[in-house]
Design a protein that fits this description.
By secondary structure, the protein is α/β, with parallel strands linked by helices. 36% of the residues lie in helices and 14% in strands. The protein is globular.
């Protein structure tokens, strides 16, 4: 929906010609026959994260000599989200043999910009759509008004990304969402009073005052609940920033591989130390229905209903479903500039965040090409990845391919089926991608609290799950690529024994929302996958 007025235009004003694109045009950058790195954006809601990650990877992992990708919107089949890194040319008709191919929009590792500049990595980024960022894009869908088309808030982006990619320097501006939730009551007003509502924000004293309308007891307990959840989030952080425990190495690896895999236990041990003796109670939060957890803390329905909304966002589930507690945690464990749990709007819309990442990449020599599509992953006769093929037939050679597309698109559409085990393919095809996500605006309810609101609306944009799949490549419209249920998390994301970003095909890695730790504009999956690929490349 679009509301008239200069205030809105100013708040979401975005350059029609981003700095990274202007710089690329002014440099008269054209498609060259050879690059050190080729990045193909992924077209999904969280693709932004992996793309960010890939860019960061190029900066953070100097000895790898790669750059990370920028995500894109690949459409229903999501054939982008791959990154190829090359070091030497093959022939004038191909883009060149690359060292690595990556696909991801995640935010990445440390001091990536410094490393890229020091290495002089020559990187190209390919996007299927005319804009970069997957679903983290700003589009003018109604003349005169620019919108965050799908993703619309920022909180989960790993804090390293802000500093590593120098996003503020590249134009990122945030506006804190405060208050952050408004829950109107469906009740008749008394006299001249309007119906009650619950407004929560960053001021704890004000939050308690609001909650006290419904329960003084809940108002007193609320700070303790926030502290309890904050501690759980602190314990989860180490798990977000590392690959899951390498169960495959433990079961089938050599003695040396088993010894090395012991290091993957560190995040779990650190989490255990943080939780301490209350571990059983925190375990209940992660596995129980969120209704059970909230009933143990509070008595007022308005407060419980408000908090429970975070347990069902993007999930085909209800607050009564076991495991919905983790979905809630996933949405409250973010923060901005040191403020735990804070959310913010990006000035210029979410596309401005993608543009800031692109600017960081191009500043260090990357070239970004939109409206380019990856058609398939190339595999040599020995069963190893050797690059990708674009839709126009152009070949990009590489030793590695990192895919930010969904597991289904990566393994069932882009990868030659003969090189993947039948059991693996069957598990991928059985992933739960059901989604209730729909972008829709309800005007009548708002009109009750803000008379005249309906008259200010000049346009609407409604997106159903099929629309999200068609436009952004989200399987089934699922913003996480596959459900964030207990059977599809950590060790089992996307499938058991393949949760560490590698897959049965040597040189192919998954780094999007379908990989650990899941969805959200976070960047963790791409960053972690980059580290794994980096270690593998050193051993080649």
């Amino acid at each position: 929906m679009a509301a008239s007025g200069r205030g809105l235009c100013k708040a979401v004003a975005a350059s029609p010609f981003p700095a990274w694109r202007r710089a690329h045009t002014e440099a008269k950058g054209g498609l060259k026959p050879e690059y050190d790195a080729v990045v193909i954006g992924a077209g999904r809601y969280l693709g932004f994260r992996c793309w960010l990650c890939c860019v960061a990877w190029g900066k953070c992992l100097p000895s790898l000599g790669l750059d990370l990708p920028m995500e894109n919107d690949r459409g229903r089949l999501g054939h982008n989200g791959l990154v190829a890194v090359s070091t030497s040319p093959l022939d004038p008709t191909s883009l060149a043999p690359r060292r690595v191919a990556l696909s991801s929009l995640g935010r990445s590792v440390k001091k990536q910009a410094a490393y890229l500049q020091r290495l002089g990595v020559n990187t190209a980024v390919f996007e299927r759509r005319h804009v970069i960022g997957g679903a983290a894009v700003t589009e003018e869908i109604i003349p005169g008004f620019k919108f965050s088309r799908a993703s619309y808030l920022l909180s989960l982006l790993r804090p390293q990304i802000y500093t590593d990619l120098e996003l503020k320097k590249h134009g990122l501006r945030l506006h804190l969402r405060n208050p952050h939730s408004f829950t109107p009551m469906l009740e008749e007003g008394v006299g001249s009073k309007v119906p009650r509502s619950l407004l929560l924000g960053t001021d704890m004293a004000e939050n308690q005052k609001q909650i006290a309308q419904f329960s003084r007891k809940d108002a007193q307990v609320f700070p303790k609940y926030e502290e309890f959840m904050h501690r759980l989030a602190l314990a989860i952080y180490p798990l977000l920033d590392a690959a899951p425990v390498d169960m495959a190495a433990f079961q089938r690896g050599s003695l040396l591989q088993r010894m090395r895999s012991l290091s993957t236990l560190k995040p779990l041990l650190k989490a255990g130390r943080i939780l301490g003796a209350q571990l059983p109670r925190y375990y209940e939060v992660l596995t129980a229905p969120i209704t059970k957890v909230l009933d143990q803390w509070f008595e007022s329905e308005p407060l419980k209903a408000t908090l429970a909304t975070d347990a069902v966002i993007g999930a085909m589930t209800s607050p009564h479903t076991p495991g919905s507690g983790y979905v809630l945690l996933h949405h409250v464990m973010g923060g901005l500039e040191g403020m735990q749990g804070a959310w913010a709007y990006v000035q210029g819309g979410m596309g401005a965040l993608s543009d800031a990442i692109a600017s960081s990449a191009t500043t260090h020599g990357a070239s970004i090409f939109t409206e380019k599509t990856v058609a398939k992953v190339q595999v040599n006769s020995e069963g190893c990845v050797q690059g990708v093929v674009l839709e126009d037939g152009t070949e990009v050679r590489s030793k590695m391919v990192l895919s930010n597309t969904s597991p289904q698109i990566t393994f069932l559409k882009l990868t030659p089926q003969e090189w993947l085990p039948e059991e693996f393919l069957e598990r991928i095809s059985q992933l739960d991608t059901r989604s209730p996500v729909t972008k829709i605006n309800v005007f009548d309810c708002i009109e009750v609290y803000a008379p005249g609101f309906k008259d200010s609306v000049v346009g609407r944009d409604i997106l159903t799950p099929p629309d999200l799949e068609r436009i952004f490549g989200l399987p089934g419209g699922n913003i996480f690529h596959c459900a964030m249920s207990l059977d599809q998390l950590y060790f089992a994301r996307p499938v058991p024994l393949h949760s560490g970003y590698r897959c049965p095909l040597q040189g192919l890695y998954l780094c999007g929302s379908g990989a650990h730790p899941g969805g959200g504009v976070m960047g963790a999956a791409g960053r972690n996958a980059a580290h794994v690929a980096f270690r593998d490349l050193k051993s080649m």
